[in-house]
C-alpha cells in the first residue's frame, strides 16, 4: 500500500472513531442543540474497530517512512529528499491530530466536570 493511501485511510479511521464524541461536541460549540444530538452516538459500538484501524494505519505509515529502506528507481519522485521530508512532516502533523481525536472521550470528563 502506498504511503499516501496509508495516511488517508488512517485519517478516515480516526475520523470514524471520533465522530460519535467530537461530532456532538462540535455541534454544541456552534450553538446547535436539541434532544436529537443524543442520537449521534450510533457509531459508538464500532469505536474500538475504528481505533484499531487508526493505530494500525498510523503504524504502517511510520514503518513505511522510517523503518523500511527506500527502494527508488532513478527519475522517480521518491529519490528527491524533499519529497521524503514533506511526507515525514505530513505524518507528524496528521498523527498527533488523530491521536488527540482518539483521546477526546477520555479527556472530556476532565474538562467538563
Structure characterization notes:
The protein is mainly α. Helix content is 70%, strand content 0%. It is elongated, with a radius of gyration of 18 Å. The protein starts with a helix and ends with a helix. The mean pLDDT is 77.
Helix content: 55-70%
Number of strands: 0
Mean pLDDT: 77
Rg over alpha carbons: 18 Å
Q: Poorly predicted ranges (pLDDT <50, ≥5 residues)?
A: none
Put simply, the count of helices is 3
Shape: elongated
How would a textbook summarize the main sheet? none
- Beta-strand content estimate: under 5%
The span between the termini is 43 Å
Structural class: mainly alpha
N-to-C series of helices and strands:
HHH
Nutshell version of this structure?
The protein is mainly alpha-helical and 113 residues long. It has three helices and no strands. Helices cover 70% and strands 0% of the residues.
Topology readout:
Layout: H1 3-29, H2 47-67, H3 81-111
Helix pairs in contact: 1-2, 1-3, 2-3
Amino acid at each position: 500500500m502506498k504511503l499516501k493511501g496509508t495516511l488517508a485511510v488512517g485519517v478516515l479511521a480516526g475520523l470514524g472513531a471520533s465522530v460519535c464524541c467530537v461530532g456532538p461536541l462540535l455541534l454544541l460549540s456552534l450553538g446547535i442543540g436539541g434532544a436529537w444530538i443524543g442520537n449521534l452516538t450510533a457509531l459508538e459500538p464500532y469505536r474500538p474497530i475504528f481505533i484499531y484501524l487508526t493505530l494500525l494505519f498510523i503504524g504502517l505509515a511510520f514503518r513505511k517512512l522510517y523503518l523500511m529502506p527506500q527502494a527508488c528507481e532513478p527519475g522517480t519522485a521518491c529519490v528527491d529528499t524533499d519529497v521524503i521530508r514533506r511526507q515525514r512532516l505530513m505524518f507528524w502533523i496528521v498523527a498527533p491530530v488523530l491521536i488527540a481525536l482518539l483521546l477526546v472521550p477520555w479527556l472530556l470528563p476532565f474538562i467538563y466536570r
